[in-house]
Amino acid sequence: MTASSFLPAATQMIYDMGLQHLLNGITFECPPAALAEKQKVVRCVLEGKQYSSEEIDRIFSASKAQGKSLYYVDEPLLAAIAPDVIFTQDVCEVCQIDTHCTQQAVYKLPKQPELVSLSPNNLQDVFNCAITIGKALGEEAAAYRYLAGLQQRLDGVTDRLRAHRAPLRRVMIMEWMAPVYNCGHWIPYQVAYAGGVDMLSNPAGDSIVTPWEKILRYDPEVLVIAPCGFLTERSAEELHLLTRVPGWEQLQAVRQHEVYLADYDLFTQPSASTLVDGVEVLAHLFHPGVFAAPAGLAHKFRVMAQVGAVS
Questions:
Q1: 141-165 pLDDT per residue, tens
Q2: If you placed Cys at 204, which of 77, 81, 121, 163 could pair as Cys (CB 3.0 to 4.6 Å)?
Q3: pTM above 0.70?
Q4: Whole-Å CA distances, 267 to 30, 66, 88
Q5: What is d(CA 83, CA 222) in angstroms, rounded to the nearest whole number?
């Protein structure tokens, strides 16, 4: 059995389950451990380039309007690997290569692999994707062991919230800054597990452009900025896209110093383990008196100490 992963989240879960010996052929955005030892077969024309949020939005919008993909497959390398199965996705053709593009790359291969699309909508779907991966690799038991440990962590968060009678926090998770996108798919479920509610979100659906006036009316108590594909350092460089908008200083989250930057892979990379990490980080941000910063995850988020400044 040889598998290729065209989806960083699938790669992460394969490593989490200890099945990386079955993996060869990944994307340029896969986790560092995989990049250090696996061959990259999926690339992007934007790889290695530094564009602003506004430029990235324009490039991807133009590409989508023209029916083109910014991703491509190293077909000779994929033919040499000759995988039995390829994991791909259909959640977002902007974030990763999709099944259609994958089909175009593999139809001429002498050995036709099985294409397994992992396209979760909610948090339970993400957990089910781990089982799908395990089954496809002939290691279903590994998936159940993996998920049992993650469910224990989620149950621990829920039990602690109940024990402390922690109130729901009115929050917003922002998936993009220019234009502003709300959060969708599984992220609202992460928020709920962490003791918050995001009334601007789109549970189990796509994130969408959200007018600034709507955000001002909603006036979140806590604002978490986690643009897709951005680490906190990159988000900090573009905070001016928000702080210059009229009304920013009047937001309750800004006035009470509850604006945070967080790494994208806590939310928009749908691997079961990183999403549980995200729940634990959110629980700390929403209820710092109840939850300490999760061990080993303090580097994944930063607090905006005052308007325009990040600590």
A1: 999 999 999 999 999 999 999 999 9
A2: 121
A3: yes
A4: 15, 29, 18
A5: 45
